[in-house]
Amino acid sequence: MNVVLDTNIWLSAFLFKGICIRVLSFSVSHFRIFRSDFLENELKDKLKNKFELENIFLDELLNRFRNITYYIPVKTSLPNICSDKDDNYILQICESCKADILVTGDKELLKLKTFQQTQIISPSQFMESFINNQ
């Protein structure tokens, strides 16, 4: 299965652990996780500017991110579904890699429930569907 983890999932997994690190760990072991330039740049920006990570830690986390994900060059047009343009970029990644699942904490994305072939779920829904049933 192809999976996209929204930036908020990556931030939570890397910085706060909790449920999102379990989502990430399970996904690494069982699925293909995709990234795009947008997702990588947004993650880098948040880690550097919002959480003020020092460059050595920032580089380490970004290297981990790259090592456990598959890069997808985005070739589809940007959807115009969400009011937050960044959310549309996440949907664009899903379309480009034909994601089966998008895991996000973003309420606007979660309201959609699906986008094309992608099921949009929260970390707790992911846990319930995949991890707790093992």
Provide a short characterization of the protein structure.
Helices cover 58% and strands 14% of the residues. It is α/β, with parallel strands linked by helices.
Strand order of the largest sheet: 3-2-1-4-6-5
State the helical fraction.
55-70%
Shape: globular
Radius of gyration equals 14 Å
| Termini Cα gap | 16 Å
Can you tell me about this structure?
The protein has 134 residues and is α/β, with parallel strands linked by helices. 58% of the residues lie in helices and 14% in strands. The chain is built from 7 helices and 6 strands, in the order βααβααβαβαββα. It has helices at residues 7-16, 18-30, 37-50, 55-67, 85-97, 107-112, 123-131; strands spanning 2-5, 32-35, 70-71, 101-103, 114-115, 118-121. A 6-stranded mixed sheet has the order 3-2-1-4-6-5. Helix 1 (7-16) packs across helix 2 and helix 2 (18-30) crosses helix 7 (123-131). The two termini are 16 Å apart. The model has no long low-confidence stretch (mean pLDDT 94).
Labels describing this entry:
7 helices; 134 residues; Rossmann fold
Write the layout of secondary structure elements.
Layout: E1 2-5, H1 7-16, H2 18-30, E2 32-35, H3 37-50, H4 55-67, E3 70-71, H5 85-97, E4 101-103, H6 107-112, E5 114-115, E6 118-121, H7 123-131
Parallel strand pairs: 1-2, 1-4, 2-3, 4-6
Antiparallel strand pairs: 5-6
Helix pairs in contact: 1-2, 1-3, 2-7, 3-4
